[in-house]
């Protein structure tokens, strides 16, 4: 969830403190070597042992701060730098053996966890295995050390826990990337939908406006009153087109089948094309009416613009609609944005589109909704 800008710094700071607490709380287990040093060492040796333990704890926390700053990316720094840091932590752990004895093996748990989170998983597993083997072998070979199995088990469980945490982080990153990709696809799809609607809206309206303007130009001398009527229609169509664009931008625009039939008749009459249109639409289910309205709009626009036809017929039933004319239709192989948009709408509604010559000559655009 996107937080308000004012809340983001506070949230990030709180999350950072919780992250440090989650890592720092495991330093509790260094209490065992701390107790060993305090009970068995004295004077300068005790001080040096405590300093050694403190430096190791600081190196562990410091490396976590560095990894967090790098976004826990395994390849954020060169491999030799990461291995050198782990080697320095191992050297501090080995040095701690001189004052803390066997309890210094606790440090190997932190080294294994750091290796798992900072290195490639396969290399991290190898290092954890080496640390586990070294701990088990040393407990068997070093005189006075007892082999209770707790250190080896702790190294294994620590590495396993960090492995699980890292996989969870990786899955979270992949999920975030997938969500981002889905959001981009959704935005692109909405852009395509809006561009398609805008093309269909303006394409039809501007075609009719052009036809009526040409008709008014031809009539301005012979029949001024008729020319004035056509000019008024042009103004009305322009205002309607502007309203359609505003409605499309607002996202509320839906076509009406009855309205498109009326608009189709007016456009065909203006282009001096005889119109044969249905007088009722009761048989068309409500679910199919918007799709049929888009078919009428696109089909009539193409008839007026491209066909050179003298007659246009629209037929529809409950699941099928046809726009037929006696013209030449579009050029062979031509596919405009309007027809592409109509195909997309038909696909979304589970319908098929037929475009081509009509029986007996002319051109046909048909859409049928599959049951």
UniProtKB/TrEMBL annotation:
InterPro entries reported in the protein's UniProt record: HATPase_C_sf, Sensor_HK_TwoCompSys, Sig_transdc_His_kin_sub3_dim/P
- The UniProt record lists the EC number as 2.7.13.3
Q: Could you give a GO molecular-function term held by this entry?
A: protein dimerization activity
Q: Name one GO cellular component term.
A: membrane
Enzyme class at the top of the EC tree: transferase
Q: Alphabetically list the UniProt keywords.
A: Kinase, Membrane, Transferase, Transmembrane, Transmembrane helix, Two-component regulatory system
Parts of the chain that traverse the membrane:
18-35, 47-66, 86-111, 149-165
* Entry-linked Pfam families: HisKA_3
Provide the Signal transduction histidine kinase subgroup 3 dimerisation and phosphoacceptor domain boundaries. 190-254
Q: Which domain of life is it from?
A: Bacteria
Q: CDD domains this protein is in?
A: HATPase_UhpB-NarQ-NarX-like
Q: Which PANTHER family match?
A: NITRATE/NITRITE SENSOR PROTEIN NARX-RELATED, SENSOR HISTIDINE KINASE DESK
Protein name, per record: Sensor histidine kinase
What is the species listed in this Swiss-Prot or TrEMBL entry? Answer: Kribbella sandramycini
